[in-house]
Automatic annotation (TrEMBL):
Function: Plays a role in primary ciliogenesis by modulating actin polymerization.
Subcellular location: Cell membrane; Cytoplasm, Cytoskeleton; Nucleus
PANTHER family: CILIOGENESIS-ASSOCIATED TTC17-INTERACTING PROTEIN, RIIA DOMAIN-CONTAINING PROTEIN 1
Coiled-coil residue windows: none
Biased amino acid composition, Basic and acidic residues: 1-26
Domain Ciliogenesis-associated TTC17-interacting protein N-terminal: 31-257
Lineage: Eukaryota, Metazoa, Chordata, Craniata, Vertebrata
GO biological process, one term: actin filament polymerization
Family assignment from sequence similarity: Belongs to the CATIP family.
GO cellular component: cytoskeleton; nucleus; plasma membrane
InterPro entries named in the record: CATIP_N (IPR048777), DD_CATIP (IPR047501)
Name of the protein in question: Ciliogenesis-associated TTC17-interacting protein
Short name of one Pfam family: CATIP_N
Amino acid sequence: MEAAEDKTVRVADSEATDGPEHRQPEASDDAVALMSSFEPEELQRCVFTESLVVFSESGRELGTFNVTVQYAQKAQQPCLLLHAQSHGTIDGAPCGTTVTAFISCELEVLEEEYHEYIKLEGHSVDNRCHLVQKDGRILIEKVTTVEKEVTKESASYPMSSLRGLITEGSSLLLMRLITLRKTVPENMQFVTLDKQLNIIHITFSDLGEKQMEVSGEIRQVFGIQRMVHSGKGRLDTWENYFLTNGHLVSRHQVGSPVTMRLLQQPSRTEGPEKVSLTQVESSVDFLERQKELKEEYALYLRQHPEIRALVSDFMQFLLLRKPENVYQFAKEYFRPFPIP
């Protein structure tokens, strides 16, 4: 098999620099303030899972889109873990996108993994991008695979350059939070990264309220338009509509032949999962204790290498004999030798 070609490109290693010729796009102060303004109770109301179906313009079902938000812990601090996944086919070609993001309670992206692919006949494309905060900087590594050719790109920015950063993952959480407040603040500019890992602006605007059919029932929905300013006057625009409880009803990229729609609406009585602060603290305590136990267990195993040898011997003997009654076999294997 022919080895894949590997090309490595250093995209950016940026420092904040004064002067208009060096000035990077920046988030507005109001946008940064909004990100840290959400109360714990508002974040709690965003902890739920939703599933949408992807349709073509003709109404043919093409795939699914799922989003889950739950509490987690990253770098010894409580945070939210968002996992979004879409899979389907376009013109018969399998394609999909997966986003996993750890997001702080101030909506800072602590770490995010983004993966998208499309498998055309004789031509497959796979993109992976990893972003993480480390030592006061945000590090980005991107790997693009086109058939056998692999291109690696990287970028590094001081965190001050990416104040107000909104990624694919955190934008989904931000729109849930905005929906719960039922208002989109005006004149706010956030920043994001384009496909070349350059800093660009991203904005959100109010599409207003309207009625939309959801699983045979007319419901009131709230619209948010997300616009990614890709430069040279080009805008990539998404129109998103939500129920008042934060559940996504419809998602469509302007100009795209596909639309994501909610088919089975959540119960009026259920709403997003309610989680008390005590439950959150208990969850964090449990995760911290779980981590401590893993470290204790690992240390004990390092101090007693005979455990691994003993278990390995037992497994080899077990697979050699293949007994019907494993419990009885183990009992006899580990039975103490009689003391003479």
